[in-house]
Write a structure and sequence with these properties.
The chain is α+β, with helices and mostly antiparallel strands. The longest helix has 23 residues.
């Protein structure tokens, strides 16, 4: 007799918590990294409830350490006096060589650190961050035009 919670099934707690939909629209993604986050207990509990917003968040490298600024994690309802500040600066956990690479890219090449998504991996909160270069308006229009053309071609093929 099969159990309802088979070992191959993913639980509700594994997977994407929040996704930055504007990142791929506003930036050319050059390279991606997966980093851990230093969080408090109420922040993790709020994330399990899905209370996170990445739209205004960005990364910053300072004194050999990487930080994530403006990541909004909503208040945990049962947190009372031990609740966290919603938009505090959070430290990113990366390997030293990855941080050195980020420092070089951000300072010399003028690239930006943009979070792509926030997710659980093996019960821990991870953030996918990207080295990105800002798109110009004509680049955004070109992407939209290309996407529309692909959609039209797919419709034409389906109609036959």
């Amino acid at each position: 007799m099969a159990r309802s919670g088979a070992s191959g099934d993913k639980s509700d707690n594994d997977g994407v918590i929040a996704r930055n939909k504007r990142a791929r629209h506003d930036y050319h993604i050059l390279d991606t990294f997966e980093a851990g986050l230093v969080l408090t207990g109420t922040e993790v509990k709020a994330l399990r409830q899905g209370k996170a917003t990445l739209t205004d968040a960005y990364g910053h490298v300072r004194e050999g350490e990487a930080f994530l600024l403006n990541l909004h994690i909503g208040q945990y309802e049962q947190g009372n006096v031990f609740n966290h500040e919603p938009t505090r600066t959070r430290k990113l956990l990366l390997h030293r060589r990855e941080i050195r690479r980020l420092i070089g890219s951000v300072e010399r090449e003028g690239l930006t650190l943009v979070p792509l998504d926030l997710h659980f991996k093996d019960g821990r909160v991870k953030v996918s961050i990207a080295l990105a270069k800002g798109k110009k308006l004509h680049d955004k229009r070109e992407d939209i035009r290309r996407r529309d053309d692909e959609r039209e071609m797919a419709r034409a093929v389906r109609a036959r």
